[in-house]
Amino acid sequence: MQLGLIGLGKMGGNMRERVRRAGHEVVGYDRSPDLQDVDSLESLVGALTAPRVVWVMVPAGDPTRETVEALGNLLESGDVVVDGGNSKFTDDQVHADLLATKGIGYVDAGVSGGVWGLENGYALMVGGSKEDVAKVQPIFDALKPPVDAESDSPAGQGAGFVHAGPVGAGHFAKMVHNGIEYGMMQAYGEGYELLTAVDLVEDVPGVIASWTQGTVIRSWLLDLLVRALQEDPGLDDITGWASDSGEGRWTVEQAIEHAVPMPAISASLFARFASRQEDSPTMKAVAALRNQFGGHAVQAAKAREVEDPA
């Protein structure tokens, strides 16, 4: 089948290639001339035969909203738009309602797999009507991991793809997935730090590599930590500064709204906030309080260098 794909960065570009390898035709548009197959959204829509499927793979927020609105003015009744970016699930119904006025379907697709998806396949969590999902199913089948008859996964041959529910369910599922990812990475990071803090363990990378087979904490994330330590055993080439994409925040917000206790994921999110502080105001206040009530010693702030006005 044909697929229009908007956004050909690291993820989108690899997805285009994987879908093509499966025998489908992909017409791609990107603002970068070096990546695009066509030079405009109008050209992309014109190159596809109705009913069309157009997959949007651009940053969440305004870029996605503007792209969906533009497609609403170009596509026809019976066509389907897929948002495969990291949009907040509450945006999905807004997009779906906008397109529905013109008879255009909408599917939200949470996509996991990163830069490794080209070879390994992508995990897909989708939301939308059965009819709209069915129109896109050949593309989902091309993107998802191949069936592994020998897999020891209890999910069996259905692993890697799920029609999670109506519009919004796909991105909600991906949001929770990313929240769990935050917690897992934090746990691995804390374990790594404790191993490096003692003199008793002489081969920290080796210990972590030993966990990748036969243990209950083995995972792809652990494999990636092993890879990182092979490239930089002491992680000396990077700083302990970690950003967040927003999905961890949304997960915690939903936990609060639905009164779901989520201490591990919440703590991992706040740890990322702490990583971006060079001098924590919270801990400065704590140090000041300890000094006030108990006379405990404090460390003086380093004197700031003042430029000579001359």
Automatic annotation (TrEMBL):
Residue span, 6-phosphogluconate dehydrogenase C-terminal domain: 170-297
InterPro entries, per the entry: 6-PGluconate_DH-like_C_sf, 6DGDH_YqeC, 6PGD_dom2, 6PGDH_C, 6PGDH_NADP-bd, 6PGdom_BS, NAD(P)-bd_dom_sf, Pgluconate_DH
SUPFAM superfamilies for the chain: 6-phosphogluconate dehydrogenase C-terminal domain-like, NAD(P)-binding Rossmann-fold domains
Keywords: Gluconate utilization, Oxidoreductase
Keyword Ligase among record annotations: no
Superkingdom per UniProt: Bacteria
Pfam families in UniProt: 6PGD, NAD_binding_2
SMART domains, per the entry: 6PGD (SM01350)
NCBIfam families per record: gnd_rel (TIGR00872), PRK09599.1 (NF007161)
Family: Belongs to the 6-phosphogluconate dehydrogenase family.
Name of the molecule in the record: Decarboxylating 6-phosphogluconate dehydrogenase
